[in-house]
Each structure stands twice: as structure tokens, then as C-alpha cells.
Specification:
Number of strands: 8
Oligomer: single chain
Strand content: 25-35%
Order of helices and strands: EEHEEEHEEEH
Distance between the termini: 12 Å
Helix content: 10-25%
């Protein structure tokens, strides 16, 4: 599956850089090549227990998720979005947001957003799909 998406965090209508400690806490246990990680890395090659992989890059205020494969790697992506306090911009241009983020979005962004109590894989598939195969 050739696919990419972005995760953003907003505070008072402005994009903010994700907390890199949170990003590292979530991604470090899943590094495909752990010996290549340094303290200031913002690029991660992730491999889930089932062998599915994804590239994750943090640049400024964006967490880029590139070429996630079908498999358990999607659970890592969803956990990252939730714990980083982010909203997911799907390739179709829709934002998937937790309801408690509504007040932090930039003006007008709520019009292109779907709000859920929590970002789950099922909610993501509903908003970003349909997919030929389940993502995990």
C-alpha cells in the first residue's frame, strides 16, 4: 500500500511541534534499526511485531507517516496520534480529530473535520477508507 498521512497538533488555533519525548517513547520500542537512533533524531523506521513497517518523520509541526504497510503498524500510528494529542490529515483531505481538540483548531478547520471521542483504527478506516483489506 503506497499511502501517506500527516499528524498535527494545534493549540489555540496554531500548529505546535509535537513533544519529541512522547514521539520517542511510542516509537523507540518498534525501531527496525535501533542502533541508528540518536538523541536528536526525528526520522524513524518502525517495524511492528508482525513485520509490517512504516517511516515516520517529524519536521517542524508535522509528523509525516510514509508508506505504512497493512498490519499491526497501524496500531502504532493510531497510538502516536492519540498520545501526541494530534489530529490526522488523511489523504482525502479530511481531518480526524478527537472531540476535545475542536476548540484548538484553526478557524474554519472544523468544517473539514470528523470528530470522535477517541481516534481508533476503526474510526480512521471509516474516515479514510474504504480499504480493500482491513489495515490490521
Amino acid at each position: 500500500m503506497s499511502y501517506s498521512l500527516s499528524v498535527y497538533k494545534f493549540v489555540n488555533g496554531e500548529p505546535v511541534r509535537p513533544d519529541m519525548n512522547v514521539v520517542r517513547d511510542i516509537l523507540s520500542p518498534h525501531l527496525a534499526v535501533p542502533e541508528e537512533l540518536t538523541g536528536d533524531d526525528a526520522q524513524f523506521w518502525i517495524r511492528a511485531v508482525d513485520g509490517s513497517e512504516v517511516e515516520v518523520d517529524v519536521v517542524d509541526c508535522v509528523i509525516g507517516v510514509e508508506r505504512p504497510q497493512t498490519g499491526k503498524v497501524w496500531k502504532i500510528i493510531i497510538e502516536l496520534a492519540n498520545r501526541a494529542g494530534g489530529v490526522i490529515l488523511t489523504p482525502n483531505g479530511t481531518f480526524l480529530c478527537r472531540e476535545n481538540m475542536r476548540e484548538h483548531l484553526p478557524d474554519g478547520m472544523a468544517n473539514d473535520s470528523v470528530f470522535v471521542p477517541e481516534i481508533t483504527l476503526e474510526a480512521f478506516e471509516r474516515v479514510a477508507g474504504p480499504f480493500r483489506h482491513p489495515l490490521s
